[in-house]
Write a structure and sequence with these properties.
heterodimer, A: mainly alpha, 74% helix, 0% strand, globular, B: mainly alpha
Chain lengths: 120, 198
C-alpha cells in the first residue's frame, strides 16, 4: 500500500530516468519523452492528492499545474502527426483537461483508474 | 528523395538482405532505418514477416542489429509483434556460451515487450496482474546490467540506455498500478516512520 507522496516521488524518478535515457533523435526518443512528461503529470496529480488529504491550502496550485502541464503535452502531441501517439496518452490528456471536472471526485476517478488510462 | 510508403517498405525488406552490408551500419547508420524511425507511421500495416526477414539478415548476430526493428514496431504501438520478433531473434541466436550475451539481450527486450503488450492491451489494474512480467523484465535487466563490464566499451552506453529505459518503465508500472492508501492517518504514520528511520 503506497501513499500518494511515495508514488509521486517514484514516478518523478522514473520520468527523469526515462528522459535521460530516451536519446535525442528519431520518433522513439520523442515518444519516450512524451511518456516521461505524462509520468510527471501523474506525479503532480499524486502530490495534489497528498495535499488535499492533508488539507493543504496550496493544493489548488498543484491541480492547476497538472492541468497546465497536460495542456502543453497535448499541444506537443499534435506537433508531429507522423509520429504515432498511444491512445491511452491521448485519453489521459483529455481526461485531466476536462473542464467540467469538479476536481476531487473526478480526480479520484482519474487517479484510481490511472492504470487503465495510462497504458504505455 | 521522396519515396512512397510502399517503396520504402519494399526497400526496407530487400536492401539489408545484402549480407556484406548487414554488419556495417550499427549504430543507426542505415539511412533507411533512420528514415523509418523518423516517420514510423508508414510501417503500421507492414506484415511482421517483412520485419522478421530483415532481422534474419543479422542473425545469428549481432543481436543489436537483429533487435533494432523491435524499436520500430514499438514506435507504432505493435506490441504483440514486438514480443514475437524479440522471441524470434532469441530463438535464432547461437546456443551455449558463445551466444549467451546476445540471448540475454534478446531476453530483456522480449520481457519488456511482453510487459508493454499487457500494459497497452487492456484490463490490467493491479500490480499482481503483471507481477510475473515485471519480475521477468527486472530480472533480465539485472542480468545484463551485472555483465555490462564484459560488453565492448563502445556498446556500454547503448546497453546502459536500454537498462535505464526498462528500469524506468517497470518502476512507473509498479507505481501506476500500486494500491493507494486511502487513509490520511496511515499516510502520516508512514511518513513519520520514514523520517525516524532516515
Amino acid at each position: 500500500m503506497l501513499t500518494p507522496s511515495t508514488i509521486a516521488q517514484s514516478l518523478q524518478e522514473a520520468a527523469d530516468r526515462l528522459e535521460a535515457a530516451a536519446g535525442r533523435r528519431h520518433a522513439p526518443a520523442l515518444q519516450r519523452r512524451r511518456v516521461a512528461q505524462a509520468w510527471r503529470i501523474a506525479a503532480t496529480l499524486a502530490r495534489w492528492d497528498a495535499a488535499v488529504r492533508a488539507a493543504d491550502p496550496g493544493a489548488d496550485v498543484l491541480w492547476q499545474s497538472a492541468q497546465r502541464q497536460t495542456q502543453v503535452l497535448a499541444a506537443k502531441l499534435e506537433e508531429f502527426p507522423q509520429i504515432p501517439v498511444p491512445a491511452g496518452l491521448t485519453h489521459f490528456c483529455r481526461t485531466v483537461n476536462a473542464s467540467h471536472l469538479t476536481r476531487l471526485p473526478e480526480f479520484v476517478g482519474i487517479f484510481r483508474g490511472r492504470a487503465e488510462r495510462m497504458r504505455w | 528523395m521522396r519515396r512512397t510508403a510502399t517503396a520504402t517498405h519494399t526497400a526496407c525488406a530487400a536492401i539489408p538482405r545484402v549480407p556484406e552490408l548487414a554488419h556495417s551500419s550499427w549504430p543507426r547508420r542505415d539511412p533507411l532505418l533512420v528514415e523509418l524511425l523518423e516517420r514510423p507511421a508508414s510501417v503500421v500495416d507492414v506484415a511482421l514477416s517483412a520485419f522478421t526477414a530483415v532481422s534474419d539478415v543479422h542473425l545469428p548476430g549481432p543481436a543489436w542489429r537483429a533487435l533494432e526493428l523491435v524499436e520500430l514496431l514499438q514506435a507504432v504501438g505493435r506490441h504483440t509483434d514486438c514480443v514475437s520478433l524479440a522471441r524470434h531473434v532469441h530463438q535464432h541466436l547461437p546456443a551455449g556460451a558463445e551466444g549467451a550475451p546476445d540471448r540475454q539481450l534478446a531476453e530483456v527486450i522480449a520481457a519488456i515487450a511482453q510487459l508493454d503488450d499487457i500494459m497497452h492491451g487492456g484490463t490490467i489494474t493491479t500490480v499482481d496482474a503483471v507481477a510475473s512480467e515485471l519480475a521477468a523484465a527486472e530480472t533480465a535487466a539485472g542480468v545484463i546490467a551485472a555483465q555490462s563490464d564484459a560488453v565492448h566499451p563502445s556498446d556500454r552506453p547503448i546497453l546502459a540506455g536500454v537498462i535505464d529505459v526498462i528500469t524506468a518503465r517497470t518502476q512507473a508500472a509498479r507505481n501506476l498500478l500500486a494500491p493507494l492508501s486511502a487513509d490520511p492517518v496511515h499516510d502520516r504514520a508512514v511518513a513519520a516512520g520514514g523520517r525516524r528511520s532516515a
